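so my prof wants the structure for this chain in the tokens format not the other one, which i didnt know existed until like an hour ago. anyway here's the sequence
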Amino acid sequence: MIFKNMIDFNVQNLDSVIKIGDTMEDIREGLNAKVWTVGVVVGSSELGLSETEVKEISRAELKKRIDVVRHKMTEAGAHFVIDDFSELPDIIEIIEKINRN
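here's what i got, hopefully its the right format
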């Protein structure tokens, strides 16, 4: 799917592609395609909590669960793992700096 999207949008440089996902399969897809891969924890299938459950769970328990998912995604090879999409602009900026060097 990544390569089809690259063709459809006439993107030729793998370094300019970011696969963002919330499952281990998403992480594998990005890595297999040799593109930047970002895992998203909160709201993910891996975390397995609804928005309501995230709000109702204790902060300590939520942090523990987030840490477990973050570790799984990191161990799977994700280049970056973020809690939520609000962190994505910072990751894009980091990737752009790396690509310029």
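also thought this was worth mentioning. The CA atoms of residues 43 and 68 lie 14 Å apart.
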